[in-house]
Design goal:
Layout (H helix, E strand, L loop, with lengths): L2 H12 L2 H4 L1 E5 L6 E13 L5 E12 L11 E3 L5 E10 L3 E8 L2 H4 L5
Antiparallel strand pairs: 1-2, 1-4, 2-3, 3-6, 4-5, 5-6
Length: 113
């Protein structure tokens, strides 16, 4: 067994999105996948050039479910809240971790700037 294979096997035991994850829809796909989600808040620029506090999330997604996450991809959680990926925080042999912000009427025009 190679080191890469062993790391993947270890990660799947310690970070188990199947048992501990939440169902999400990634980019409007027909099927759902499981991801570990951590919610918080972040500041974004609003339409008037001011700042607004919005709900955000970090999502840990298996590479086997999403090959390469990109800015402006969408994530819909089980509460039907839609988040837009802002950046990829980290990727390794098994997982991607992305940061996303909740889409609101005020932030929609500024997402992706």
């Amino acid at each position: 067994m190679t080191l890469k294979t062993q790391m993947a096997a270890d990660a799947s035991i310690f970070i188990d999105t199947d048992d501990f994850g939440e169902e999400i829809t990634y980019n409007g796909a027909a099927s759902t996948i499981n991801a570990e989600l951590v919610y918080g808040e972040t500041v974004v620029e609003d339409e008037m050039g001011g700042q607004q506090l919005v709900k955000s999330m970090e999502a840990m997604i298996k590479k086997s479910d999403v090959t390469l996450p990109a800015r402006n991809d969408t994530i819909e959680n089980s509460d039907e809240e839609v988040f837009v990926v802002q950046r990829s925080i980290r990727s390794d042999a098994v997982f991607h971790i992305v940061e996303a912000v909740k889409v609101t009427r005020q932030t929609l025009g500024n997402i992706g700037r």
